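Co-fold these.
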Amino acid sequence: MMEFAAWLQATAFFTALRESWYVYPTILSLHMVGIALFGGLVLVSNLRQLRGQPVDSSRALQHLGLTLMVVCGVLMLGTKAEEYFLNPWFQAKMVLLALVAVHSVVFKPGKLAAVLSLLLWTGLVICGRGIGYINPDLDRVHASGALKNNGSRAMSATYRSYSDADVARAASSAAVTQPF
Amino acid sequence: MQSVLQPILESELTFPVLECFHILGFGIGVGAIALVDFRILGLAFPAQKVSALAAELSKWTILGLVLVFLSAGGLFYSDPDLYYLNPSFQLKMTLLLAALIFHYTVRQPRAFNDDSAKWPAVVSLLLWSGIVFCGIFIAFTGEAQ
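Predicted complex below.
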């Protein structure tokens, strides 16, 4: 999995995305626009289900919004695949996304389904925001060989939030290690 | 007051939690606006009149925008100069002012009257999307970079 991540982000396409200053924020903005324009659709159809009203929404529009968000999400994932795969918020987000898929297959429209759906989408937003606040220390992960032998235990020790010390350290070692 | 707020102000969690409320808020508020825009364009809720949908969703727009503004105040307060001097932030505030005025003086009255013109929906979608774009770009332009 991590070898795949390293390969993916090293491809010319994702390297180009990563190295441009404006492409990543543009994709992130589209991801957010997807939330803004189509989050309402999720809210309305779920609230109508809760009240037992006819949902009468537009499947096509829902699919368009989901496609926009997923495409942008995959593009962002590709730029920093290793970091994302090791990020617990990202992992939690993927679990929730899988649950959304399960939810859409298992549940018939109804009150319970509507409440669960609202909770899942809220959780997705929270996890999405959390991703930006954890930077797995890739240098240390690579150096320790943790990924090959003792993945979970060693990796959990490398999770740290962004502190002033990290910024200073990153700045001082930037010339040598060339972070993303 | 300062002492009561101190733990909140100093917590590392404050900023990300405010951001979550900000994102959920615009998901609800701008989402509700966008749905009416999509209806005006004929892309959603074909069985419902524009005015009925606008009436149903207007309170969600307000709720969402209230969440957005309350969280925005907290986010801005974390580093006022950084935001105030940031070109993306300045553009965002300009677009926000334009969007709010446009929404409540043009788009919303027309929606309530089932006006068939489509351009207000296009302008509305562009303005609100532009605001979201500028919000993201704040972190990538100016001093914040």
